[in-house]
Design brief:
The protein is 30% helix and 11% strand. It is α+β, with helices and mostly antiparallel strands. The strands form two sheets. A two-stranded antiparallel ribbon has the order 1-2. Strands 3-4 form a two-stranded antiparallel ribbon. The longest helix is centred in the C-terminal third of the chain and has 20 residues, at 91-110. It is extended.
Length: 111
């Protein structure tokens, strides 16, 4: 499913292969303290040190080491030792943090 030209190129995905059915999962647990985890990571813009032909503009993303501290399941180590983030897997953390924010808003409304 992945086609990779260089160590720093983001792999291409075949999204049709992603299966999310609960029938295929075990040990399912809700992400706790999601908002506190989100507060520990930063959204950043950056330029690549050694850009490939398609990495010539400023990009937006996250720092893998920050993500690894709060949600290590979404960080992988490539063959060259560089950390890589599976961005699509951060969505679960963001969903739970939004729910926590909603609860806080609702509590404030009741006061």
């Amino acid at each position: 499913f992945f086609k990779q030209k260089t160590a720093y190129e983001i792999p291409k995905r075949d999204w049709s292969s992603d299966v999310c059915s609960s029938d295929l999962k075990t040990n399912v647990k809700r992400i706790t303290d999601a908002l506190a985890k989100v507060e520990k990571i930063n959204g950043v813009t950056f330029d690549w040190l050694n850009p490939t032909a398609d990495q010539t503009r400023t990009e937006a993303g996250v720092i893998a080491q920050e993500i690894q501290e709060v949600l290590p399941e979404v960080v992988t180590t490539r063959e060259d030792g560089m950390l890589a983030v599976r961005y699509e897997r951060i969505i679960a953390l963001l969903i739970e943090s939004i729910k926590e924010l909603k609860q806080e808003v609702e509590q404030l409304k009741r006061q």
